[in-house]
Amino acid sequence: MTNIESDALTVVAQLRAKPGKEQALHQALTALVAPTSREPGCVTYNLHVDVDDPASFCFYEIWRSRADHAANLQTAHLQDFAARMDDLLDGELRVSLLRHIA
What we know:
- By secondary structure, this protein is α+β, with helices and mostly antiparallel strands.
- The protein has one domain: Alpha-Beta Plaits (2-Layer Sandwich), CATH 3.30.70.100.
- Helices cover 41% and strands 32% of the residues.
- The protein has 4 helices and 4 strands; from the N terminus they run αβαββααβ.
- It has helices spanning 3-7, 22-37, 66-73, 76-88, and strands at residues 9-16, 42-50, 53-63, 94-98.
- It is globular, with a radius of gyration of 14 Å.
- The N and C termini lie close together (9 Å).
- InterPro entries: ABM_dom, AI-2_Isomerase_LsrG, Dimeric_a/b-barrel.
- GO terms for molecular function: catalytic activity.
- It holds the Pfam family ABM.
């Protein structure tokens, strides 16, 4: 395992749109992909939607380090999205921070 793999942080973030807010959440999440993908330390930043539930979204992210992910959370585009979450999300944002082991 290379050093980047041992230091890398995998993030799985699950979000659910409020009823009637599916398209608005989809657009807001899609708008995060390009700027986040260009950030230093971002290895992978993929947005997914549940094939059977269009209100359920998931980000699958790989960051070079936990510090790179922490810096991402302070960017203007993430802070702008965070300010809109109460209006768009049904329930809490669920985030898992994972380390690759095999």
